[in-house]
User: Fold these one by one.
Assistant:
Number 1:
Amino acid sequence: MAKSPKVFFLVHKAHSALIRAVDRRSRDETGLSMTQQGVLFLLDQQDGLSVGALAQALSLSKSSLSGLIDRMEDRGLVRRAPVDGDGRRVVVHIEPQARALVVQGRPLVQGWNAALLAPFDASEQQVIARFLTHLADHADEIIDGVERGGKNG
C-alpha cells in the first residue's frame, strides 16, 4: 500500500515557500507586500469595507490588519472614514493613486495563478481548487474534529 502524503506538512511548506516568493516579487514589482495587494484588490472590487470584513476575506486577525492599514494610510494608499458620522464604525477606502497599483499588480497575480496551474490538466485544477476551498472554509472544523493524540474516526 502506498504511503499517505503528509498533507499538513506539505500544505505548510508550500504556503511558506509561495508566500515568501510572491511577497518578494510583489515588493520588487509594486512596492507592496502580497497582503497589501490583497487589501487593494478587495477595495478595488468593493470600496468602503470594514477592517473586520477585510480581515475575514484575507484570513487575518483584525489587530494584524489594523497595523497594516495604518501603514497603508501613511503611504496615502487607503483612508479610514466613519460610517454616517459614527466614529465607532469605520470603513476603509482605496485612494486614487492606489488604483494604479491594482492595475499594475493584477497581471502579476494572474500570471502567478496561471504558472501554478500550468502543470495540471483541467480536471486536476478543479480538484486543487476544491481541496484548497475546502481547507479555507473548514479548517477549524477539520482540526477541531481530530481527537487529541490521534485521528478522528
Note: The longest helix spans residues 7-30.
Number 2:
Amino acid sequence: MSLFVLIGSLVLLAIALAFVAVRVLLRLPVLKHFVLGCFALASGLLAIAVFLAAWDLYSYRALLDETPVATVTFTRQTAQTYRATVSVNGEVRDYQLAGDQWQIDVRMIKWNPTISRLGVDPIFRLDRLSGRYQRLEDERSKPRTVHALRESDTIDLWHWLQKSESLLRLADTQYGSATYLPMADGAVYQVTLSHFGLVARPENRQAEEAVRRWSS
C-alpha cells in the first residue's frame, strides 16, 4: 500500500463522515433529536480534521532506499554571510544564512510494524535550514539564522502523533536527522536521505575544497 493509498483512504473517510453529517442534518425537524444533531456536527468537524490531516500528510514523501531530497548552492555575500539556493522537487528558493557552516534538518515518521507490513514506507519532510559558526564564541555572540523549509498549514500531523498516546502506537515521530557541512562561494551540495539519516555530498570542486579544508 503506497503513501497515496493511505492519503486517499483518509480523504474517503473524511468524505464519508461529511456525508453522514449532511444527511442527518437534512433529515432533522427543527429542534428535534438534539443528540443526533450534535452527532452530525461532531461528524462534520471530524471530517474536516481528517481531511486537514490528510492534507498535511500529503506534504510528506515516502522514503525509498536512498532518496535525493535537495540540492543546495551557496553564494558568498559578505564575511560569514551567504545566500543559500535550495532546490526541492524543481521548486527553488533563496535563504540568507549567517555563519561558516549550514545545517539541514528533516522530520521522519516511521510506522509501527503492523502498518509497515502493509507496505507503507517511512515518510519524511524537510524541516529547517540554519547557519552555524565554526568557533564556539561566534555561535554564542553572533546573529543566528534559521528558516522553515516547510510548515503545516492548519493541522500538524507530526504534533498530533507526538502528543496523543493512542496515535503514538501508530508511528515513531521521535526519529529525526540532520547534517551540516561548510559554506563556500559557489559550492553545490546534494542532500539524500536513507533509513539511516541525512547525507550531504559535495557536487563540485568548490564544495570538495571547502570540505577538505574543514576536515583538515
Note: The chain has a mean pLDDT of 77.
Number 3:
Amino acid sequence: MKSLIIALAITSSTLLNAQQMEDYKQIQEAVSKLFINTDTNNWDGVEAQFAVKVTLDYSSMTGNSAAELTPKDITTSWKTVLPGFANTHHQIGNIIIESKEREAHLFCYGTATHYLEDDNGNIWTVVGSYDFDLVKIDNLWKISSMTFNYKYQDGNKALVTKAIENVKND
C-alpha cells in the first residue's frame, strides 16, 4: 500500500510539472509572438496576444502614466511610428516565469533595435526589461499588463521623428 501511495504522489507531481511546463511554454510563446508580430507589422497578430483590456506602462521611459487600453488602442498607437522604420528587431532574454493556474508573471530583458537610413546614424536602440502579467482565458495565455523598465538608449534618437513622418507620408 505504501508503494502505491508513493507511486500516486510521483504521478501527480509529474502531471503537475508537465502542465506547468506546457503553461510556461505557452506564456513565453505569447510574449515572443507579441514582439515577432510587432517587428513584422502583423497588427492582428499583436492584438491576438493581448487580453480584452491591457495595462500598458512605459512611464519609466516616457514619463507618461500607465494606461488601461484595448489591444486596438495599442496597435493604433504603435502604427503611428513603427512602420516608419525600415526594420525593427525586438530581442528578449533572461526570461523568468511564475504561474499559478490562471495567472502568470513573466520578467525578461529586452532590447529594441530600430533601423532607418539617415546621415546622422541608421540605428536607434532602446534597452530595458519587461514585466508582463498574463491571464489564462479559454485555455490561452493573454497579456493583461505590460511594463517596460527603461535602462538606456543609444544611437540616433531623431529616427523616431523621421519614422513618424514616414508613416504620415505613406
Note: Helices lie at 2-39, 43-48, 59-62, 71-78, 159-169.
